[in-house]
Design goal:
hypothetical protein tt1805; 5-stranded mixed sheet; 2 helices
Amino acid sequence: MSETPRLPAAVEVSALVRQVNAQGGFATVLAKGEADAGTILLLLCENGQDQRVYERMPMADGTRGWHCAKRRDPQDPQPFLDWLVRRSQQDRDLWIVELDIAGAERFIGLAV
């Protein structure tokens, strides 16, 4: 099975940031990774609440799809923050991008 060419990470991140900002949300790059092949973590929230992180994972059909990797517990946020720090230390090519807008999953093709 041949792999579909990937869009460079910097281009994908730029497009997400522009789309969210154009729709009245707030989007920003929290950590800038490798421009071409860096991994992208998306920190999704609405008005800073209900924070969750999505990343692409291999799917059964050989493609890569977005998966919710971690949710912030509002009663105990520290494990969530620690997890983000560990991930960024483990992968220096990692992009962390915050999308703060209602229904942020729609920007990565997921139902809200």
